Amino acid sequence: MNTIDLRSDTVTIPTPAMLQAMMSASVGDDVYGEDPTVNALQEKVSALFGKESALFVPSGTMGNQVSIKTHTEPGDEVIVEEEAHVFVYETAGPAILSAVQLRTVRGTRGMLSADQIRETVRPPGYHLPRTRLLCLENTHGRSGGVVLPVKDLRTVSDYARGEGLKIHLDGARIWNASVASGVALRDYGSCFDSLSVCFSKGLGAPVGSMIVGDRAFIDRARHFRKIFGGGMRQAGFLAAAATYALDHNIARLADDHKNARWFAESLMGLSQLEIDLDNVQTNMVIMDVKRSGRSQREVLELLAGKGVLLTPERHSGIRAVTHLNVSRTDVETASKVFHSIFQ
Ligand code: TLP
């Protein structure tokens, strides 16, 4: 049986062309700042986002955690949208690594308003934590890969900066946001003091993320990357994969988005599933299965038994993600499997 792996866009396998680019990379010791391929990638990505500097890190989690550490002091408060990866899926990293308090605020499809920030920022006070940082996520995973509107980001960013806050974006899938919305990466970049972006999601590289920001921020982040164990030596082999991914795999994300949309629309007639089509904007489809009378786990096992892999999402949801190892034929086959189970 041919497995169709819709668990995440993290499961992609490097293509022969990407492997070739990796094997022919020039490398050096990146802890000494001497890896030419890493250095070139850092310059390329900082320019894409209109920032002064960038730092290659092993994972999106480390990108977020190093950024939070770099922006804050122990005891600070960080405002975070309550479904953000940094709060839900990073195993309380900010509490452990940065000794900060996360203040969660319920967003609308991942977005917070300036009014919500106004109500949440603490005034200066002897008894109060200092509100230091705001974290957002684009695309917003737990809403199903929804794109945060750049106009709203600009408004919130202006307000937060006016309040003296720093603002960080978890941009693990910022490439998807840019392709879906037509908004340039640089325009997203200007809304934030730091961004963490990933090469190992939709772009299809095996490993690697990047933090971008101004020079002073990145210099300080380099120090924390070392403390967190993220200083890598001949990392140019990985940076070569990321460079290849940037050069070849951004525009094709539109295909993943079309496949996700097609898949979601093909399931709309199934009354046992609830899908909010408005949220299907990029490469994810989240479905609620409670009307099927089966548990989330039963549904995932049934699908896996027929060769279609998805992940659990909240209490009664399941998530499908399209990516470069999933073709239109694969989503058609997956759709047939769904129809055979939920008809
Ligand atoms: N997300 C994974 C799971 O952890 C949920 C996935 O399959 O979607 N930010 C965002 C928005 C992410 O979705 C992820 C990975 C990360 C950060 C962390 O990236 P890694 O896995 O490289 O640490």
Description:
By secondary structure, this protein is α/β, with parallel strands linked by helices. The protein folds into two domains: 13-248, 3-Layer(aba) Sandwich (Aspartate Aminotransferase, domain 2), CATH 3.40.640; 252-342, Aspartate Aminotransferase, domain 1. The protein has helices spanning 16-23, 36-48, 60-71, 85-88, 93-98, 114-120, 150-162, 174-181, 185-189, 215-227, 236-248, 253-266, 296-305, 328-342; strands spanning 4-5, 53-57, 77-81, 101-105, 131-137, 166-171, 194-198, 209-213, 274-275, 284-288, 308-309, 311-313, 317-321. A seven-stranded mixed sheet has the order 2-8-7-6-5-3-4, with helices on both faces. Strands 9-10-13-12 form a four-stranded antiparallel sheet. A two-stranded parallel sheet has the order 1-11. Helix 3 packs across helix 10 (215-227). The chain is globular, with a radius of gyration of 20 Å. It binds ligand TLP.
SSE blueprint:
Elements: E1 4-5, H1 16-23, H2 36-48, E2 53-57, H3 60-71, E3 77-81, H4 85-88, H5 93-98, E4 101-105, H6 114-120, E5 131-137, H7 150-162, E6 166-171, H8 174-181, H9 185-189, E7 194-198, E8 209-213, H10 215-227, H11 236-248, H12 253-266, E9 274-275, E10 284-288, H13 296-305, E11 308-309, E12 311-313, E13 317-321, H14 328-342
Parallel strand pairs: 1-11, 3-4, 3-5, 5-6, 6-7
Antiparallel strand pairs: 2-8, 7-8, 9-10, 10-13, 12-13
Helix pairs in contact: 1-11, 2-11, 3-10, 12-14
The chain binds ligand TLP.
